[in-house]
Amino acid sequence: MAPRKNAKGGGSGGAHSSGSGSGSSSTSAGSSSGSSSPGTRRETKHGGHKNGRKGGLSGSSFFTWFMVIALLGVWASVAVVWFDLVDYEEVLGKLGIYDADGDGDFDVDDAKVLLEPQNIEDELKEHIQTLLHETVLREHGKDLLQEDKEPAREQQVEDEDFLTGRDVDDKFENLEAETFHEETEASYHGEQTASQDYNHDTEEILYEQENPDDVTYQDYDEPVYEPSENERIEISDNTVEESRIIAEEVSIPPAGEHQEVPPETNRKTDDPEQKEKGVQDGRQRDQFGAYCNVKNKKPKLLNKFDKTIKAELIAAEKLRKRGKIEEAVNAFEELVRKYPQSPRARYGKAQCEDDLAEKRRSNEVLRGAIETYQEVASLPDVPADLVKLSLKRRSERQQFLGHMRGSLLTLQRLVQLFPSDTSLKNDLGVGYLLIGDNNNAKKIYEEVLNVTPNDGFAKVHYGFILKAQNKIAESIPYLKEGIESGDPGTDDGRFYFHLGDAMQRAGNKEAYKWYELGHKRGHFASVWQRSLYNVNGLKAQPWWTTKETGYTDLVKSLERNWKLIRDEGLAVMDKTKGLFLPEDENLREKGDWSQFTLWQQGRKNENACKGAPKTCALLETFPETTGCRRGQIKYSVMHPGTHVWPHTGPTNCRLRMHLGLVIPKEGCRIRCANETRTWEEGKVLIFDDSFEHEVWQDASSFRLIFIVDVWHPELTPQQRRTLPAI
Fold this sequence. Notes:
Structural class: alpha+beta
Helix content: 40-55%
Number of helices: 29
Distance between the termini: 78 Å
Low-confidence stretches: 1-55, 99-104, 116-125, 135-155, 165-186, 189-259, 261-295
Strand content: 5-15%
Largest sheet: 8 strands, antiparallel
Shape: elongated
């Protein structure tokens, strides 16, 4: 390489190397540093040695060989493509099992998702090389290796892999209730979070424990919500989404129903770390059981007959995967007509109907899909994995439409068919919780824990049930160990919420440690603000002034008419009709606390308003409170000796006003976050009840206040119209 260095160095470089590199300087070297002739320069350029000898490989030769190798590479690439030596679609199809960002294929973004949390670069490279090697062997094994039966077997596996539904029918969606129970203490609210890059109606699960019949469920006929700029909404991806590693496929409708996530306290900016946490949380639960995980065995969805029509099934499935839903529906309907005994064809038809329901936002089409899933499981000679997929998806879609009891029957059938599958029993436990049957849910989780005592999902749910039954001390180890297990479905804000709450009630100082951990993992806006249904970016502070809310007219009206409001409340208290109902959300440690509600979730209680007509007429002119579908308007009476546990409200979308009506001189106080205040007759206190608050009534007589919830002032008019009620 010395001659090449000398040549490229030019005149001065040659002189320098001559002087320092050898003891004898040559005429050629000297001339190159001074007035070298054209002939000399030409000789050097063509590889002449500094001492006049020709050296090894000249620059020209190197360039020639470089071009030869480059052209060989180009022609080799052309040959691979022209002669179809490698089926890249098949290779990419196999790589599709690693699709983590939900765009339907494997690309750089998927690699980032897979490689970021785990150090598996070598494993992924090895797997890719293996896939390429297998494909080449399969297509050209006769030319590369001695003939055997292995390539044919691998081809069969690959074709079946296309039809396994690993990334196709997985649209597991949690149900979003149109209305929720008032406090998170008495209900189990499911959350689903994923990417914010799409507008999609998302669903949350409500485990209604006390009044399940009061809940209406989201369906495709409900109005949709378009997010504002200052919100971060996290929703389902449009193709592959849902559990912790693998996502599931969901078609994206034109606009999405609003879903809330914990906001940053006192900030209005999006936090990428929080967003990523939401994405990871949205991928935590139930990807059709263990058999759909990348590391687990692929489901077998083809029976002997379906293997004979594999090519036709693949052709139809390709249409569906490419988003040509209507064409795919027609293709699978034709297959069902031709082969009515084919389970896989009918399952493809059900998937297409499911996709079409998403696309058209049609409950009617979805009901058809639910029926077709049932038909799949009812056919003869259906592979067990296909039965499981069909019935699980049927149950999920039934829940989406609010058919909780129908879903429960489907889950019961699944457990009967697959009694050893504890994940299905866990799902059945959730099904019982959805209809408010805690006792049967408890039995299910006891069965699971008897068989698999370290099942984290069963532990957190069992702990939740124990806490709802006010078995506080018993609930703590189950909730704690369940979260610590790290099992799918356990890293959920609800469980951190209830674990911390149980510890507070038991006097365990570790409560705030778990709140802090929940905050760090993105479940809570802060240690103090622990509501679970939030709009991101709203101003967050425990106490508010009237001016800060902008509801000056409402506050003035309340304070100006406080005696009228008080007198109507006292008149109702004096009646023996039981209009003041005891607090029923398990928020009291001790004492007597009752409420008389005029508005609930934006709906007026006409009968109640007959007892306080002037008060109701006064409030009718203030839609910020009467239209607050995430709040209430009510009288609240608390008797001496009452203590209300520290607790938080369910949402950051409202502020709470307390108008003092009958306030003892001493002994009554309220703490919100780390500041304690007292009421005053005729005056309004305003606080954000999504922050932890606690009440003491140690006076010698009753305390009466008037509670008025209002929309958070930073919510837009559209948000106020479309946010689901709580």
